[in-house]
Amino acid sequence: MIRRRFILYATFFSMVAVFLYCLVNPTFFVEGNSSNSEAKADSVRLRADVEFLANSKPARNHRELAALGESANYIRSQFGPNCDEVEYQDYVVEGDPYQNVVCRFRGTDPEKIVVGAHYDVAWPFPGADDNASGVAGILELSRMLKHSTKSPSNDIELVAYSLEEPPYFDTEHMGSYVHAKSLRDKNSKVKFMISMEMIGYFTDRPDSQDFPAGFLGIFYPNAGNFIAVVSGFSSLGLVRDIKSKMIRSSNIDVRSMNAPQKAFGIGLSDHRNYWVFDYPAVMVTDTSFFRNKNYHEKTDTPDTLDYERMAEVVRGVFGAIND
Question: The domain 29-321: what is its CATH number?
Answer without folding.
Answer: 3.40.630.10
